[in-house]
Design a protein that fits this description.
318 residues; 39% helix; 17% strand; binds iron/sulfur cluster
Length: 318
C-alpha cells in the first residue's frame, strides 16, 4: 500500500523493513575470521583493506586490536594477517609470502568462485571480460588473480566500444554485487557484438545481492521513501539505492542513523528500510530508535525468502 498524502507530526510513521537485509554469509564469515584470529593469537591482527565495507564493523574490530592496512608492505614480517572478503590480487599473496606473513584468507567463497572462472577462461586462451566497477577492490582482486588479458567493462557504453584482439575468443565474468538488470543488459550487448562469447554456467551475482535487490524492489513499491543503510563505498548498498530510485521511489543511502535529517521524513507517512550486505542489524535498530524519538512508529517486515547459506571458516582458523 502506498500512501501519498502528507502526514502531520501526530500521525504515526509506517516503517516497512526489507527482508532479507543486512549481513550476508560472506560478511559473517569474514568478521568471525578476524574475531577468531584475535582470540587465538591476540592483538594485533593485521587486515588487508577493510574486512568488509562498513565503518561500524571496522571500528569495532579496530577496538579489539585489528589493524587495517591497504598494502602488505605496511605489515610487519611474520604478523598474523587476514585478507578481506573482497579478495586480493596474486601480487598481494606473493608479497605476503615474501614477508613471511601468517595469512588467513577471508575471501568470500563466491568471489573466489569468480576468480576460478576467470582463470579457467584464461587457461583456455580466452580474453576475459570482467563486468564490474574499475576501482572496486573485488574487481582489482579478480583482475589480479587472472594470468592473461582482462578487459574491465563497467557499463553499456564501455561494452559498446571495447575492442578485443580476437572477437571469437572471449569469456565474461562479473563482480558479485552488481545490479542483476544492469548485468543482463551488458551481457545482452556483449552477446550481440560477440556471439561466441562464453559466460559462467550460472550467475556471478551472488545470492545475497540478488535477494536484497528483489527485496528492495518490493519495498519501493510500498513506501514513499527507501532508506538504505550502508557505507558510501559499499557496492551492493549503492545498487540497492539505485534500484529503489529506478522503481520511482526516492531513496537515500546513509551510513547510520545520524545520516538521516528529520526534515526528510517529517511529512511522510511511510518509509522503507533496508541494509546492505555489510551493514550490521544494530544499525537498523539505531535508525528505528531515532525515528521513534521523532514520530510514533508502526513497524512491519516484508515477507521474503529465508537465507540458509553458511560458509565454513577459512581452514587456517576453523
Ligand atoms: Fe560474498 Fe555476496 Fe556477501 Fe560479497 S555480498 S561477501 S559475494 S555473499
Amino acid at each position: 500500500m502506498t500512501i501519498n498524502s502528507k502526514a502531520n507530526a501526530r500521525d504515526s510513521l509506517q516503517v516497512v523493513l526489507a527482508n532479507p537485509r543486512g549481513f550476508c554469509a560472506g560478511v559473517v564469515r569474514a568478521v568471525e575470521t578476524v574475531e577468531r584470529a584475535l582470540a587465538r593469537y591476540g592483538p594485533p591482527v593485521y587486515v588487508r583493506h577493510e574486512i568488509v565495507h562498513n565503518g561500524r564493523v571496522v571500528e569495532e574490530l579496530r577496538a579489539k586490536g585489528a589493524i587495517f592496512v591497504e598494502e602488505v608492505s605496511s605489515i610487519p614480517p611474520g604478523a598474523v594477517t587476514v585478507l578481506s572478503a573482497h579478495g586480493v590480487p596474486r601480487t598481494a599473496v606473493v608479497a605476503a609470502d615474501a614477508r613471511g606473513l601468517a595469512v588467513i584468507d577471508a575471501t568470500c567463497p563466491l568471489v573466489a568462485k569468480v576468480h576460478a572462472e576467470g582463470r579457467r577462461f584464461a587457461a583456455q586462451g580466452l580474453e576475459v571480460v570482467l563486468i564490474g566497477h574499475h576501482d572496486h577492490p573485488e574487481v582489482v582482486s579478480t583482475r589480479g588473480q587472472i594470468e592473461g588479458v582482462v578487459h574491465v567493462v563497467q557499463d553499456l557504453e564501455e561494452a559498446a566500444r571495447f575492442v578485443p584482439a580476437d572477437p571469437t575468443r572471449l569469456g565474461y565474468i562479473t563482480q558479485t554485487t552488481l545490479s542483476v538488470d544492469d548485468v543482463r543488459a551488458i551481457v545482452a550487448l556483449l552477446r550481440s557484438r560477440f556471439p561466441a562469447i562464453l559466460g559462467p554456467a550460472g550467475d556471478d551475482i551472488c545470492y545475497a545481492s540478488q535477494n536484497r535487490q528483489s527485496a528492495v524492489r518490493a519495498l519501493a513499491a510500498r513506501v514513499q521513501l527507501v532508506i538504505v543503510i550502508g557505507a558510501a563505498n559499499s557496492s551492493n548498498s549503492n545498487r540497492l539505492r539505485e534500484i529503489a530510485a529506478e522503481c520511482g521511489t526516492p531513496s537515500l543511502l546513509i551510513p547510520d542513523a545520524n545520516g538521516l535529517d528529520r526534515a526528510r521524513v517529517d511529512e511522510l507517512r511511510s518509509i522503507g528500510v533496508t541494509a546492505g550486505a555489510s551493514a550490521p542489524e544494530v544499525l537498523v535498530k539505531e535508525l528505528l530508535d531515532r525515528l521513534a524519538s521523532w514520530r510514533r512508529l508502526a513497524v512491519a517486515t516484508l515477507d521474503g525468502p529465508q537465507e540458509t547459506v553458511r560458509f565454513n571458516l577459512p581452514r587456517a582458523i576453523a
